[in-house]
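Side project, low priority. Logging it here so it doesn't get lost.
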Amino acid sequence: MEAPSADRADLLDALCGEDNELKEEVRTLLASYEDAGSFLEFGLAGDSGAALSPGDRIGSYRVVRELGRGGMGVVYLATRDDDAFEHQVAIKVAQVRLDSDQGLRFQQERQILANLQHDHIARLLDGGTTNDGRAYFVMEYVEGLPLEQHCDKYEYSIDQRLALFQRVCAAVQVAHQNLIIHRDLKPANILVTSDGEPKLLDFGIAKILDPGRSPSLIATATGLRAMTPDYASPEQLRGELLTAASDVYSLGVNLYVLLTGEWPYRLRNRSLAEITHAVCDQEPLPPSTVAARNDQRAVAQRLRGDLDSIALRALQKDPRHRYPTAAQFAEDIHRERSGLPVEAREGSRTYRALKFARRHRIGLAVAGLLAFLALGLFFQSVRLRDALEQANTSARRAEDLVGRLYRTSASTAIQSERWLEGAHQLARFAADEDEESAATRDARFSIQSLVGNVDLLNIMSHRTTLGGMFYSPDQKLVMTAQENGLQAWSTKDGSLTATINHDDLLAAS
């Protein structure tokens, strides 16, 4: 009925297809509509359907001005008129017969709003019947702009648009949880207030998925289907069974327009037949392609990849291939904004790894720096350890050399029977050695090897602790050290050759 007369033939062909019986029935209904004139326009007998004027009273409210009108009613801006408090509201007054299909749909809308309570859905405040018998309901008045206009006016970034759209999805999800399909999700029905809060409006053509919840209401009238073709799903245009996936498609169109500023399909004359063909048969371009075509390189870069996949999944022709719910649609947008892999892309391990790296790039950079520092410290510690070992080896070699010098000097002196000099050299060397030094152990082993008789060590007995043992270069004498002095022994028969007491050692020092 809203289509121009010249387009109705093409529209019927597109919507009815080869169903000639349905096509003829619709033609009859259209002819009846034309003949009925103002009767159906106002819906009630006599002058009872006359438009209200500013100042007219409806219940506790007084009309300020008309806000808009549709097929079922007129919406007025009104204010309370009982001096209780000042409050502006929107009042929708029925403009159809209440016993007609549209009248029943009006009552259904009122019941739907009564069941929906959400911050982003316009609230139902009151309802009743006017003095001339017309039904009405009072809603929260939303002063704002349509979704796309609001974002353009306040120059929202892509991320701000996505965040706003997520809240719209949340409102639609509440409707779906109450078994209600909106069926007319377009920017004009999604107003955004000046403080950036979206409000979902106009459930006039909504469908209740479970009519048994309210037996007095009907879900859909027979005849021409009410819709906004630009935002309708393929199954809605074809008159097929609708599910929540139909609203997901409409949300997808809204998202596409928000991201690109364009409708997903390119048309020449925008007739209903052409729109139907495009929605049902054409594939939309990725949003990033549209942005690139319009020289929006930064936007195209932002949209390419995940956002392209999200938008195109919501616009799938087959409802089974879309997001099952508005909540899952919003969740995928949340994942994209958070840098997580999105469900719209069947990503490989490489894709998921790249998403992880982008999401944690600061943490990975810090971890990489720490790993680099740790690796540097490791190699530095290895170098220090090697240097320390080299220094220790050098020190041991030096000590060994000094020991050899002391022992050689002492042995030479003893061999020449310069007992005090030899004792002095041994005393100086023993002062730097541990109680059982390497030199002493070497001497013990050497004596045993030379003599070949362990008993020789028993002959060279000491009443006190043996402090050191050295032998001469010709291996004929052995010098032993104890607390009371030094003694020289013959390696041939173990006889004591010379004794030097402690006092003599002190005097020699």
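Brief comment: The first strand starts at residue 57 and ends at 58.
Revisit when time allows.
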